[in-house]
Write a structure and sequence with these properties.
The chain contains 17 helices and no strands. By secondary structure, it is mainly α. α3 packs across α4. It is globular and about 70 Å long.
Length: 410
């Protein structure tokens, strides 16, 4: 229901603004631009789905080997105490816990292509436990919020974009991103627990969140001892080594259990194509609405309104140039990436706005994209408090990003 209102709102706002531009400003190009955007974004949605087919097949095949090899069950047992608190409705020892862990691990390493199929696999497992198939369950919402909060340890792709744009030290946004995304994730967990009446003060959750905080502090300290060249090499290498090690570990576990790993891989890979086809309508719906909103000029008007309001109360507006990335990030990862690159191109990769746009890009994930793809893949249409919790985590990540960038670069 929430997605229905949001989808209608995008089109309604775009139509009103485009009509105003046509009648009062004589802009005859606005409606052709809007129509062109509908064709372009629908094509993009299909291309994204098509591009996901191979990756989905690969990782669903690997996950099938992991299931039969006992890896997923192993992770389920290890994580049972923590996940029993965050996901109290999941039965003890259920294999979906392992799937959730693998998805979150891929997100932490900035491995987007690996995270999506693993997330879809986890969502399918959660749907089997869902008593109301068209309504998001509490575990589904907690899982989605953990995804949208976007906890990232190694933002490899963002550092690469900065290097391409001529940044003197492409890795100088590493620590700010790590801090901002941690605050976003922590906020997402807290608000979702409050909605679902999960006790945040039990010993397991307190120790886990405290341990995470110490781990983040340790990572920050370790990387702060490196120069920018070493940091880039270590970040890129460790992400890829860990990813390939996961594949090898799953295959080795299958061999150990005397599983026919090739047949198991093919069995799982077959689901990749059907999953990619299922998400096409949802991707078309969300991306076309975003494209129309952008083409109408609504985004530009929104930014100018923010800038005027902030300057009117006497606050510094140097961060507003990076705001399009923050506003686009919950809607479209590709759109936010384009906004980030455009900001660095316009103001400079080492400008305050250029750096802040990178931190915005890395501090959270694409809430509406994940919501549409993950829930759409299992046929969930009633999302309950998922949007509220996801957007709250985005908002906290955005505020944290601005404050942290002023601290580091202001």
């Amino acid at each position: 229901m929430v997605l229905n209102y949001i989808w209608i709102a995008f089109f309604a706002i775009a139509f009103v603004i485009a009509l105003v531009r046509l009648i009062f400003m004589g802009d005859t190009e606005v409606f052709p631009a809007i129509m062109n955007s509908t064709f372009d974004t629908s094509k993009t949605a299909f291309e994204i789905s098509l591009g996901l087919t191979g990756v989905l097949s690969l990782w669903l095949g690997i996950m099938k080997i992991g299931e039969k090899g006992g890896v997923v069950s192993f992770f389920a047992k290890i994580l049972a105490p923590v996940f029993a608190k965050l996901f109290p409705d999941i039965p003890k020892g259920h294999p979906v816990v392992g799937n959730i862990f693998m998805n979150l691990s891929a997100n932490m390493l900035g491995l987007d292509n690996a995270a999506t199929p693993l997330g879809l696999k986890a969502m399918e497992g959660l749907q089997t436990l869902n008593p109301k198939k068209d309504t998001a369950s509490n575990p589904m919402i907690m899982f989605l919020v953990l995804n949208t909060s976007g906890l990232t340890i190694i933002p490899v792709s963002i550092m690469v974009y900065r290097a391409q744009q001529g940044a003197v030290q492409p890795s100088d946004i590493f620590i700010p991103i790590l801090l901002a995304t941690f605050f976003s994730t922590l906020a997402g967990i807290v608000i979702t627990c409050l909605y679902q009446r999960i006790n945040l003060f039990n010993r397991v959750l307190l120790l886990t969140l405290g341990g995470m905080s110490l781990a983040v502090a340790g990572i920050i300290w370790g990387f702060s001892q490196m120069n920018e060249v070493t940091m880039n090499v270590v970040g890129t290498t460790s992400a890829n080594v860990i990813l390939f090690a996961i594949i090898i570990a799953f295959i080795a576990a299958g061999v150990r259990k005397k599983v026919n790993v090739y047949e198991a891989f093919v069995e799982g890979a077959k689901d990749g194509f059907s999953t990619a086809v299922r998400i096409i309508p949802y991707l078309v719906a969300i991306l076309v609405s975003i494209g129309v909103f952008r083409a109408s000029g609504a985004m530009d008007w929104l930014i100018e309104s923010f800038k005027w309001s902030i300057s009117a109360v006497g606050f510094d507006t140097s961060w507003v140039e990076a705001l399009p990335t923050a506003l686009m990030k919950p809607l479209s990862g590709a759109g936010a990436r384009g906004m980030m690159v455009d900001c660095m191109t316009t103001y400079g990769a080492d400008s305050f706005a250029g750096r802040l746009s990178c931190v915005f890009q890395g501090s959270t994930d694409t809430t509406f994209y994940i919501l549409a793809v993950y829930f759409g893949s299992v046929g969930v249409s009633r999302v309950r408090h998922a949007v509220t919790c996801g957007l709250f985590a985005d908002f906290v990540g955005m505020i944290a990003a601005v404050g942290i960038c002023y601290l580091f670069f202001g």
